[in-house]
Amino acid sequence: xxxxxxxxxxxxxxxxxxxxxxxxxxxxxxxxxxxxxxxxxxxxxxxxxxxxxxxxxxxxxxxxxxxxxxxxxxxxxxxxxxxxxxxxxxxxxxxxxxxxxxxxxxxxxxxxxxxxxxxxxxxxxxxxxxxxxxxxxxxxxxxxxxxxxxxxxxxxxxxxxxxxxxxxxxxxxxxxxxxxxxxxxxxxxxxxxxxxxxxxxxxxxxxxxxxxxxxxxxxxxxxxxxxxxxxxxxxxxxxxxxxxxxxxxxxxxxxxxxxxxxxxxxxxxxxxxxxxxxxxxxxxxxxxxxxxxxxxxxxxxxxxxxxxxxxxxxxxxxxxxxxxxxxxxxxxxxxxxxxxxxxxxxxxxxxxxxxxxxxxxxxxxxxxxxxxxxxxxxxxxxxxxxxxxxxxxxxxxxxxxxxxxxxxxxxxxxxx
Length: 416
Hints:
Layout: H1 14-38, H2 41-75, H3 87-114, H4 118-144, H5 148-171, H6 176-185, H7 189-196, H8 198-203, H9 212-232, H10 236-242, H11 246-249, H12 253-284, H13 289-318, H14 326-351, H15 355-375, H16 380-414
Helix pairs in contact: 1-2, 1-5, 1-12, 2-3, 2-4, 2-6, 2-9, 2-10, 2-12, 3-4, 3-9, 4-5, 4-6, 5-6, 9-15, 12-13, 12-14, 13-14, 14-15, 14-16, 15-16
């Protein structure tokens, strides 16, 4: 696209996305605290596994948002005509395939993962995934169209609905199953928003910069990379369970919660903001990452100190029987900062249409983390900390090396 053909961008991410990110982070904390205080340690471990499995799949579907943002932004804000594929219907094809695979294969893995409750929890997971598919697609369509207030509202209403539904479930005396269904049902917030606002109805019609086959291929790559990232991020309880003996995992709830609490202040806001990063890199190149990188580094340093000083006490407030050492909290905060940097380098690779580098980097990070959990000796805390610190470092290196190599190749082709 020539310089004089650059479409006018509507709106600025600014305050709405920041507020939505903060609200989403606070709500994530609140739901985890609510469950930890209401459930026994063993029930909470089971709920955290469902939470990790559900949000792990959500993490796959976030690829729909990221690629939707890139493709709509590249096509021109609000594009509803032209040869490009409609983003939301195309995303629903891929999301439907994910639901079908999970549903058909569920009897093979759900009993092991969810135990005796699997017949109630598997349908909850499938409903949540189906609803979140539309949520993700609409998120990409609104963010790519520059409808940042609509995007922020979608994120904020979905997360707030989750807290309200979980609170109702607790008041009603629901346990693991009731809380799990409440978490999944909140993903349908887009239904109310689509009925109430023309902005969301318009988002169903926006188009990408490529045809359906090209968009599906890019979405598959983005979702595969997002899936690898989801295993490393919200799906970590599942990863830990499959790499840890049952007798050791039975006492893992405090450490799993510490991982979640350490990550939420950094990763939840960044998760909501990374679509902004994609649009900025599309427009301005990798230099647009400088401010975000500096902010992540500063927040990680401050966060590690605060985690060392306040982490164990905060965990006792959540549940007096939960104990995790101060050094572990500080190390987990450093690990969270590294995952943030990995998220930024991945967003840059995606924005530059380096889908291969984006995918390989996340696969390398997740693979390294998994291998380390399997081969490392020592206590559970040492295994978790080392794996969560070194895994993202591997992924960052891959993103940077593959991305630089791709840039050199493109430059050579452009200037032989």
